[in-house]
Amino acid sequence: MTTETAQDTQALTDGFHLIIDSLKLNDINTIYGVPGIPITDLGRMAQAEGMRVLSFRHEQNAGFAAAIAGFLTKKPGVCLTVSAPGFLNGLTALAHATTNCFPMILISGSSEREIVDLQQGDYEEMDQLAIAKPLCKAAYRILHAEDIGIGIARAIRAAVSGRPGGVYLDIPAKLIGQVMDAEAGAKSLVKVIDPAPVQIPGPDAVARAINVLKGAKRPLIILGKGAAYAQADEDIRTLVEKSGIPYLPMSMAKGLLPDNHPQSAGAARSLALKESDVVVMIGARLNWLLSHGKGKSWGTSPKKFIQIDIEPKEMDSNVEIAAPLVGDIGSCVSALIDAMGDNWSAPSKEWTDAIKDKVETNVARMAPKLMNNNVPMDYHGALGALRTIIKERPDAILVNEGANTLDFTRSIIDMYKPRKRLDVGTWGVMGIGMGQAIAAAVETGHPVLAIEGDSAFGFSGMEVETICRYNLPICVVVFNNNGIYRGTDVNPTGGADVAPTVFVKGSRYDQMMAAFGGVGVNVTSPDELARAVNEAMDSGKPTLVNAVIDPESGTESGRIGNLNPQSVVSKK
Ligand code: ADP
Ligand code: TZD
Ligand code: MG
C-alpha cells in the first residue's frame, strides 16, 4: 500500500490506494464496472487489494448490478466507469437507483477541470458533475487526495441514510494519481459511524395511526419494496399476524411473507383495493403502480391511509394521508406492534372471508391453465412449470423483466422468502436482467433464475459472457415469442420491413450462452422447460433456455395497455 523510492524514504500513498482503502474500511468489497482511462489501474489495484472487481460488457448493466446489490445488502453498491460515454452509460442505472430508493454510488473517472471548464476538448471531456446532479440524490467531486476519505464517507452516508438513493462521485484523473504521505493518508480515512441511523416515529404519530386503525372495518396492509429493503422481516410478520389484517405485497415485496400465507390478498388485489376502508402503506408509494391512491381501481368507498415512510415529503404526495408515520420501517412497525397492546381485535370475519373466498376462486380458476402442456407453450403453461421449481427451491432468486413475461410471472410465481424477487422496479425499465442476475449471484451465493422476455433480454444479453466468465449459478429463461408483446404484427403497407414489434422468427438465444461455454437448451414444452431448468439449478452451470412461446399468446403492453395513448385516426 505504500511505496518507497531510493531518493525519498518517506512512505507514500496515492489517490488509487486512498480510494480503495476508504471503500474497504467501510466494508465495501465489491466493484461493478467497465475498465478504461483513467480507472483501469484502479480496478487492477482494487483486485490486488482483495476486492471483488466484476468487469461487465456495458456500464448500464454494471450499474443495474450495483443498484440491486444496494437493495439486497443495505450497503451502497459501487459502479466504476470511465469518463463521458462510460459515465453516461452508467447514469441510467444511477437514476434508476434513485427512483427506486436503492443505495448506489457511481464513481466515474473524469477529465481535468482546467480543460473541461474552458471547454478545450480534453479526452472524453464532459462536465459530468453538472449532468449527474439532477439525476441522483447527491453528487460530489474530490479534487485533493487528502479529501478522498471524507468524500467517500459523504457518498456512503448520502446513499444509505434517510430515503436511500444514488450518489455520484466524480474523480478526475489527476486526483487518482496524486501522492501524499502514507501516514497522513491513513489518518484521513473515515469510517462512517451509523450510516443509516434509526428514525423513531413520534408517539403522537403512533397513537394517531392506532386510532385510525381501530376505526377500520375493512383494513388492508400494503407492503412495498421499501419494506423488503428495510430487513425488518420478523417485525413485519408480527404486525401482519398479530393484527389479522389482509396484506397485499407489491412486486418486489412478494415473499416478505410467503405468498401462500392465509392473510395474503395477492390473488384478490382488485377486491382488496376497492373494498378496503383503511390502508396501511409500509414502504410503498402511492404512485402509478397503485393508481395514485384514487380512481376506479380504488372503488367508491372512502379510504383513510396510514403511511410508514422514512421520507416525510412522501406523505400527501397523491392523496391525503390520515396518519403519517415518518421513520424507519423497523422502528415504526415495532412501535405499532407495542401500541396495539395485547387485546387487539382482528378485523371482521366478513371482511377476511370475503378476501379469502376471492383468493380461493381466483387460484382455482388459474390452476388448470397452469397445468396445460400446449406446444408451442403459452405463458401459463411455461410459468406453471417454473412455479413448481421456485416452490421447491425457495432460496433461489428470481429476476424478471418483459411485458407479458413480467406480468404473468409476477402473478403466477409465488415467492416464499424476502428479497427473492427482483424486477423492473418503479420505471418498468427493460435491461435490468443480466445485471441483477449477476449481482444477485455474487452478493448472495444463491442460484438465480432469470425469466426474461425476448425483447427484455436483448437489452443486456451480451452479459451472458460475463456470467460464463465468472461461472455464476444463473439460469436465464428467454420467453421467445418472436417480439415485443406478440410476434404477430404485420407491416400494414406490405413493405419488406417487418412491424416494429417483431423480431427474427425462430431465434435461438440458447446459442448465445453456448458461444461462451455455458449450457444452451432449446425447449418447446413445459415438461422440457422444467427438465432444463431443474438441471441448470442442480448443476449451477451458466445456462440459457430458449423457451418457444406461442407468438399469439401475449397482449399489447401486458397488463398496462391502458397507459398507451390512443390515436383519433383509426389504425390501418
Ligand atoms: P413499491 O414500488 O414496492 O410500491 P416504492 O419504491 O414505491 O415501493 O416505495 C418504497 C418506499 O420505501 C419509498 O417511499 C422509500 O422512501 C421507503 N423506504 C425505503 N427504505 C425505508 C426504510 N428503511 N424505512 C422507511 N421507509 C423506507
Ligand atoms: N425501453 C426501456 C429501457 N424500458 C421499457 N420499458 C421499454 C423500452 C418499453 N418496453 C416495455 O415497457 S416492455 C418491452 C419494451 C420494449 C418489451 C416487451 O417484450 P418482451 O416481453 O419480449 O420483453 P413479452 O413477453 O413479449 O411481452
Ligand atoms: Mg417477447
Description:
With 572 residues, the protein is α/β, with parallel strands linked by helices. It folds into 3 domains: 9-188, Rossmann fold, CATH 3.40.50; 203-356, TPP-binding domain (Rossmann fold); 371-553, Rossmann fold, CATH 3.40.50. 39% of the residues lie in helices and 16% in strands. The strands form 4 sheets. A 6-stranded parallel beta sheet has the order 3-2-4-5-7-6, sandwiched between helices. The chain has a 6-stranded parallel beta sheet with strand order 15-14-16-17-19-18, sandwiched between helices. It has a 5-stranded parallel beta sheet with strand order 10-9-11-12-13, with helices on both faces. Strand 14, helix 17 and strand 15 (421-423) form a beta-alpha-beta unit. It is globular and about 80 Å long. The mean pLDDT is 96. It binds adenosine-5'-diphosphate, ligand TZD and magnesium ion. Residues 453-455, 481, 483-484 line the site of magnesium ion.
In short:
This protein has 572 residues and is of the alpha/beta class. Helix 1 runs parallel beside helix 7 and helix 12 runs parallel beside helix 14.
Observed structural traits:
binds adenosine-5'-diphosphate, globular, 22 helices, about 575 residues, Rossmann fold, 3 domains, binds ligand TZD, binds magnesium ion, alpha/beta
Topology of this protein?
Layout: E1 12-14, H1 15-25, E2 30-33, H2 40-48, E3 52-55, H3 59-73, E4 77-81, H4 84-100, E5 104-110, H5 113-117, H6 128-132, E6 138-141, H7 148-160, E7 166-172, H8 173-177, E8 179-181, H9 182-188, H10 203-214, E9 219-223, H11 225-229, H12 233-243, E10 247-249, H13 269-275, E11 278-282, E12 304-309, E13 323-326, H14 329-340, H15 349-371, H16 379-392, E14 397-401, H17 404-412, E15 421-423, H18 433-444, E16 448-453, H19 454-458, H20 464-469, E17 474-480, H21 510-515, E18 519-523, H22 526-539, E19 543-548
Parallel strand pairs: 2-3, 2-4, 4-5, 5-7, 6-7, 9-10, 9-11, 11-12, 12-13, 14-15, 14-16, 16-17, 17-19, 18-19
Antiparallel strand pairs: 1-8
Helix pairs in contact: 1-7, 3-4, 3-18, 10-14, 12-14, 16-17, 16-22
The structure holds adenosine-5'-diphosphate, ligand TZD and magnesium ion (MG).
Adenosine-5'-diphosphate binds at residues 100-101, 163-164, 224-226, 229-230, 250, 252-253, 283-285, 287, 289, 309-311, 314, 328-329, 426.
